[in-house]
Amino acid sequence: MAWRLLAKPFRLLGTTRAFSNTVDGGIKGPSMKTAVPGPKTKELIAEMDEITQSSMASVFVDFDKSKGNYLVDVDGNVILDTFCQISSLPLGYNHDAITEAVSKKENLMGLVNRSSIMMFPPKDFVQKMKSSLLMCAPPGMSQVTAMMCGSCANENAIKAAFIWYMDKKRGNANIGPDSEEFSTALYNKPPGCPDLSVLSFDGAFHGRTIGVLSATHSKPIHKLDIPAFDWPIAPFPQLKYPLEDHVTENKAEEQRCLQRVTELIDEYNAKQKFVAAAIIEPIQAEGGDNHASPEFFKGLRKICRDKGVAFIVDEVQTGVGTTGHMWAHEAWQLDDPPELVTFAKKMQLGGYYHTNDCKPRHSYRIFNTWMGDPARLALAEVIVKEIKENDLVKNAKEVGDVFLGGLKDLENKYPQLLLKARGSGTFCAIDCKTAAAKDTLVTAVRNKGVYVGVSGDCTIRFRPALIFQRQHAELTLEVIESVLKEL
Questions:
Q1: 240, 271, 306, 369: which one is catalytic?
Q2: In CATH, what number is assigned to the domain containing residue 171?
Q3: How large is the average pLDDT for residues 234-247?
Q4: Residue 67 lies in a domain
Q5: Helix or strand or coil: residue 212?
Q6: Which domain, by its residues, includes 380?
Q7: pTM of this structure
Q8: Which of the following is catalytic: 73, 289, 314, 431?
């Protein structure tokens, strides 16, 4: 099932570098004046460290000069950005349509008068929701709840799943919580606060707020010193590459993981820590770009359905076109939709889609001051429109095929350095033999004018904008190979 927009004929793919110069504001390619980070960035990092934690800062960006696929830093370096603010810039830097939308008076009013949306929505709120978030809703989804970021999207999707589960357990849609549930809830005691759990997967990342940290298992530094819930953690399939050479082994590995999911649900239910939901990423992004087959996800969906467990698909990083589908889980061709699908990043605000029965029946059960943001909703409207009119989902698929093919070629040419090229659309990755080799390659590539991301222990990941073209992919591959030749 395809997402709802019917795309117009694509205008961009296969054009000459002249198109790139238009989208990229006349920038013809990388231009490096210093190493990255440069001296001005280092000065600003030191100054920032006097008032807040600064060790995460990579480069200070001159956003006025950045354009399209190119980031310009404060040292004057012009860098082809294949990471795009941790996969959160769908149309690159300073896209004309985004700039125009921000300048419109009605959108400025949303910025100036930031409303508490669910209590005092602006007059055009319903129309904006329909022309943005609901215009690209996943198949089978007609409900959406807007939030602010990926962590709070996942946090509140889990809350909605708990409410859904308890409503089912009460057995009658007309029977609400009783007086004992209300009174005990205030003191963190059952039955008002039931001992429910969420199944997640080893290697997962679902955010850094308190609740979703218990479902995050990618890096220990995320979780260190933070109390966690006793929630089940299932193994995520560890596939062998090339996939076509390990079909039998990979199928057995996926079946092993699904069997463990079933066992864990039964084990936790037996000890009265009832599994209300399972949450999973279509591709484990922070955990090392780990993939699984559509058959694995279909199997997981069936287990959730059979066990009465809400199926939550975390599309915070994989959503909004980057995988060659508007929503990555569309590639699974499920018989019925997940209960909840979360989003953020490229949509420029967070939230979750859900089925009708996951809509709470009582007010204030899912609530905060800014459930979404009128100004960001206006940007989401433009983003969805641009994706539709320029068929950018198809672009991600076709450019991604070229890019992944190039990564596989590099793997074949430099097997002593690279392995496991993989991806869907432009959501691509490749591993180095060691973490040290990864760090060396990433640093050298950045200093030659291409910014790449990392994930897991040894993985280089790519998260370009949806306007990333064949020439940008080829340039990225050329720079990587130039470094590989020197190693």
A1: 369
A2: 3.40.640.10
A3: 95
A4: no
A5: helix
A6: 108-389
A7: 0.94
A8: 314
